[in-house]
Amino acid sequence: MIQQKVRVWTVRELMKFAIDHLEKLGFEETRLTVELLLSHALGCQRIQLYTSFDKPLTKEELARFRSLYERRLVHEPVQYIVGSSNFMGLQLRVDPAALIPRPETETLVEQVMLLCKESEENEEISIIELGSGSGNIAIALAKFVKNAAVVSVDNSPDAIELARENAVSCKVDSRIDFRLIDMFEPVDQLLLKRFDILVSNPPYISKEDWEGLSTEVKRYEPRSALTDFKDGYECHQRIIELAPYLLRNNGAVFVEVGYGQSKEVGTMMRKSGFSDVYSVPDLQGVQRVVKGTCPSNVRSFVNNN
Ligand code: GLN
């Protein structure tokens, strides 16, 4: 009987092979990708790959890695393949129900945190977030601002479910009220109370720019979390329109914006009577966050019934 020789791979050999292969195919962050996929397949920490460099992989381990690796080859984002992502040091579950949290969104959270620092420690700070996604922003704020009480809304039931699950695993679920609400619906639905701060990372990619995004984003991430299917400013406009109904006098609005959008969003805020409008760059130097103080003449929703 002819015994077919099956190649045995060590961790080191497999990593080198996969990194070179991905490199050749033009993928980015190849080492990180392979580390994440292989440690997921082996059920270990990334660092343990390097402490077991010469360990031969079993057939099962190799098969597990291969099936993850094949998903990456067709451009599925690594975070969806392994089902988790890191945001401000928090490990969050991610799936295609919500956007994968982006590092630039940390700048948005940091700006809110800076303002919160100015408040008295024993005073509650009420925050409303429009667009929960995976829950990243609401969870980070609840985690790092001890006196924050957060309401976070999203129009996707699947996103809300994911965000709630993440809040539980990060142990902040008692401080966040996730609600299934569409911010384009009539305003009375949103009128739960008056908030100190409104924060949002809305879908701000224009329909046109969406076409030019990578396969990773276009094929796998939820389209409605990325684009307004129009000029990219629809949601900012709606947020600015809603703010006087949602915030107390002189409440603050923090929104994330796309490359080149900060001026326009700032102008939109000023036109609507916002004061103290400024933008803040992310770590790449892109103006990423626009902040404004809501006009003091807070508006009430008049119930017509
Ligand atoms: N809060 C989420 C995030 O920042 C959702 C963003 C979105 O769906 N546009 O990633």
Question: Could you explain how this protein is built, in words?
Answer:
This protein is of the alpha/beta class. It folds into 2 domains: 11-74; 95-293, Vaccinia Virus protein VP39 (Rossmann fold, 3-Layer(aba) Sandwich). The chain is 41% helix and 18% strand. The longest helix has 15 residues, at 59-73. The radius of gyration is 22 Å and the shape is elongated. The model has no long low-confidence stretch (mean pLDDT 94). Glutamine is lined by residues 99, 101, 105, 131-133, 136-137, 201-203, 225.
Salient structural properties:
single chain; 305 residues; alpha/beta; Rossmann fold; two-stranded antiparallel ribbon; elongated; binds glutamine
What's the topology here?
Elements: H1 11-24, H2 30-42, H3 46-51, H4 59-73, H5 78-82, E1 84-87, E2 90-93, H6 105-117, E3 125-130, H7 136-144, E4 148-154, H8 157-169, E5 176-180, E6 195-200, H9 207-211, H10 215-220, H11 223-226, H12 234-246, E7 247-256, H13 262-271, E8 275-281, E9 287-293
Parallel strand pairs: 3-4, 3-6, 4-5, 6-7
Antiparallel strand pairs: 1-2, 7-9, 8-9
The chain binds glutamine.
